Amino acid sequence: MRPRAPRRKEAPPAGRVQKVLAAAGVGSRREIERWIREGRLEINGSVPSLGAGLSPGDRVTLDGRPVRFPTHPRRTARVLLLHRSPGDPLDLKEAVSRTSDRLRLPRTGGRWLAIQPLPPVDGGLEILTDDGAWANRVSRGAHRLEQDYLLRLRGPLDDGQIAEFLAATDCEGEPMTILAATAQYGEGSNHWVTVTARATRPASVRHWWGARGFVVSRLMRVRIGPVRLGRELPRGRSRSITTAEREALLAAIAGEAAVDAPAAQAEEAAAALADPPPSPGSQPAPGASPKTATGRRNNAR
Fold this sequence. Notes:
Blueprint: E1 15-16, H1 17-23, H2 29-37, E2 41-43, E3 53-54, E4 60-62, E5 65-66, E6 79-84, H3 92-95, E7 113-115, E8 123-129, H4 132-142, E9 146-154, H5 159-166, E10 170-171, E11 174-175, E12 178-184, E13 190-198, H6 202-210, E14 215-224, E15 227-228, E16 238-240, H7 243-274, H8 290-300
Parallel strand pairs: 8-14
Antiparallel strand pairs: 1-3, 2-4, 4-5, 6-8, 6-16, 7-8, 9-13, 9-14, 10-11, 12-13, 14-15
Helix pairs in contact: 1-2, 1-4
């Protein structure tokens, strides 16, 4: 019988602990930071500080269990589109097991992470990935993309309330940006409203209508930027994102970041102009040439 080859040691690559673990698919950076604050993550037997570095010889444990790292270069991140039924919990750990009777996801080498997950009471389009670095990259920009929702309201609805909703800018201190709202009035007390929003949490939309006496019996997300929830994806099912959808999503996020960049540069320029000018006789700034400094002294004379 041929002897079994010794198992190769899985050592972490060098880098910041949050970045390395996220790239290995252990969790998102926010989750890893929370594990560190809760004392669940240890490096060589002690809880690290946020942003601590990892070396190839370090031993990383989570809840006392060793964290395994891939011994081969990481492949392209897997991304799934999921149609989640309203009220079904998004238990991604249970969803990959065969015992799950509601939500089933394909197994992966790491773990599935949700991009901008909806509250448990709501449903619709969810984006999942098994790459923590990809999840962190997309989560930062997905909130700024336009998102479409379908609301089912119970109560007396009229055009005046739709206009008030369009003009709303906040709900209980939470900012809201409502771009469009169209009502389909029903014969009874139930009405459907199509909403397009940006940088607005679904919970804020639900609370806004609830504060005005409406019962939000259904809230479904049907679009995140260029990615839409089609009828070909039934409830409780998932499919891999297409190459065109992935590229369009990343391009939309990059476009939003480019729009925000000039505003950030303008703020930096305004802050620089607000600084007081140097007083006469002050020392020249480091790196200034002797000729420039001498010329200032001659002008002062």
